[in-house]
Amino acid sequence: MEEKMKVGKYRWTILSLVFFATTVNYLDRQVISLLKDDYLQPLFKWSETDYANIIVVFQILYAAGMLGAGWVIDRIGTKLGYALSLAIWSLASIGHAFARSTVGFMAARGILGVSESGNFPAAIKTVAEWFPKKERALATGLFNSGSNVGAIIAPLTVPLIAISLGWQWAFIITGAIGLIWLIFWLIVYEIPSRHKKLSKQEFEYIHSDKDEVSNNVEKVSWVKLLSYRQTWAFVIGKFLTDPIWWFYLFWLPSFLYQQYGMSKTDLALPIALVYTMTTFGSIFGGWLSGALINKGWPVYKARRTSMLVFALAVLPIVSAQALGQYSHWYAILIVGLAASAHQAWSANIFTTASDMFPKKAVASITGLGGMAGGVGGILIAKLAGALLDYYKALDNITTGYYIMFIVCGSAYLLAWVIMGVLTPKMKRVDI
Q1: 23 φ/ψ angles, rounded to the nearest 5 degrees
Q2: Which pLDDT value is given to residue 4?
Q3: 300-313 as b/e, with b when 16 or more CB fall inside 10 Å?
Q4: Going by C-beta distance under 8 Å and a sequence separation of 6 or more, which residues neighbour residue 48?
Q5: How far apart, in Å, are the Cα atoms of 339 and each of 16, 106, 138, 155?
Q6: Below-70 pLDDT ranges, the chain
Q7: Rounded-to-integer distance, Cα 103 and Cα 100, Å
Q8: Tens of pLDDT along 315-338?
Q9: How far apart are CA 39 and CA 154, in angstroms?
């Protein structure tokens, strides 16, 4: 206990900044889904396919931005890279308020996508810079829970802002919050080797992993990274599972609206419940693998076992439609469980990037995986839009959601198997 007290805890202050940035990231991106049915769809005459196309523009530029963001952040550093990303996405969020057509929303959404792509490469690199391996999954789970907090805050505030001030102000106010965060980031953040408030004991603790080298100056090319099986394990895992979260994020409000006739004010409590559950899932997911490592488990075994548990926990999602016939709360709780399992999975798959690669390549690897997840998000958005329009025309949209939930339930086990084949022991890359 005395030894832990001597180590210090300034790294957790840094993590709190990453948590709040991730909260803002998800708050900004969810506004459109909460305004869609009551405001934007009637005003701009969107079909489900139109809405899907707006989401696809976001996803395309998010995916492309992920690739570039990781590369840029590895080169200009976390402090400047994160600040640049957040400043642009905050302004893009505000820009939605001035859109006057579907094309205008596509433009605003595209800028939001390319700029928001910097959040996770910067966040994961920050965790790799500030935490030893045994704490990284927990740190990742904690900051990643910010996405859930953002998703909780959005349904509780966005409809009220829209009712009180108009839908435009929902975009303006949420976008402005990020600019406030930016001030704190620029004042507080610096890498450990240059931070004046970091004690020598905590610095040594952060750099206590024996298999990690301190050379973060040399840069690594994408071509070289793509030659490793570890890269493809991470990329494929993200490609298969990230889209499921996108589906929940952009279609959960519509699912509850279309299936159970909930108004936007009725939606606040169910959506807040789902994302409250995911907050606990994200933190528990990070804690579990860290606890197993502290018990003496090899890092790869702790990560693989934890990810299997969470992949299995997603499976009940296929019963959401059937049980929802008895009470919509059954469907809500099952979706909440699946979304929680996703965030627990996410806390661990993100951490595998810093498990398998040196710090100098972490943002690039995270960007490659994020790009793959974005491509998967594009495909699932197009699938959902086409499928739901088709079954809505047949007055049987329930079947469309049932098919989508089967896709959601199977993705994680498939990803777990493929990752295990490519990197059964998650061997560290020597670059």
Answers
A1: -60, -45
A2: 45
A3: bebbbebbbbbbeb
A4: 385, 388, 389, 392
A5: 23, 27, 18, 16
A6: 1-5, 211-220, 263-265
A7: 8
A8: 999 998 888 888 889 989 999 999
A9: 16
Residue 131: name the closest of 219, 203, 77 by CA: 203
Spell out the SS3 assignment of the chain. Answer: CHHHHHHCCHHHHHHHHHHHHHHHHHHHHHHHHHHHHHHHHHHHCCCHHHHHHHHHHHHHHHHHHHHHHHHHHHHHCHHHHHHHHHHHHHHHHHHHHHCCCHHHHHHHHHHHHHHHCCHHHHHHHHHHHHCCHHHHHHHHHHHHHHHHHHHHHHHHHHHHHHHHHCHHHHHHHHHHHHHHHHHHHHHHCCCHHHCCCCCHHHHHHHCCCCCCCCCCCCCCCHHHHCCCHHHHHHHHHHHHHHHHHHHHHHHHHHHHHHHHCCCHHHHHHHHHHHHHHHHHHHHHHHHHHHHHHHCCCCHHHHHHHHHHHHHHHHHHHHHHHHHHCCCHHHHHHHHHHHHHHHHHHHHHHHHHHHHHCCHHHHHHHHHHHHHHHHHHHHHHHHHHHHHHHHHHHCCCHHHHHHHHHHHHHHHHHHHHHHHHHHCCCCCCCCC
Nearest CA-CA partner of 90 in 193, 171, 160, 169: 171
For the chain, the structural domain boundaries read: 9-192+229-422
Give the residue from 345, 242, 205 showing the smallest Cα distance to 286: 345
> What sign for the dihedral angle of Cα 224, 227, 233, 239?
positive
Which superfamily does CATH assign the domain made up of 9-192+229-422 to? MFS general substrate transporter like domains (1.20.1250.20)
CA distances to 31, 154, 277, 325, 417 from 24, in Å: 11, 10, 19, 35, 33
Angle at 355 between CA 192 and CA 89, to 5 degrees: 60
Q: Name residue, tokens 């339930």.
A: 409
Question: Which pLDDT score, from 0 to 100, does residue 415 have?
Answer: 97
CA distance 286 to 140: 7
Nearest to 116 by CA among 22, 251, 183: 22
Q: What is the pLDDT of residues 7-48, one digit of tens each?
A: 789 999 999 999 999 999 989 988 998 898 889 999 999 887
Residue pair 356/234 in contact (Cβ under 8 Å)? The answer is: yes
Question: How long, in residues, is the chain?
Answer: 431
Look up tokens 């710090």; give the residue: 359
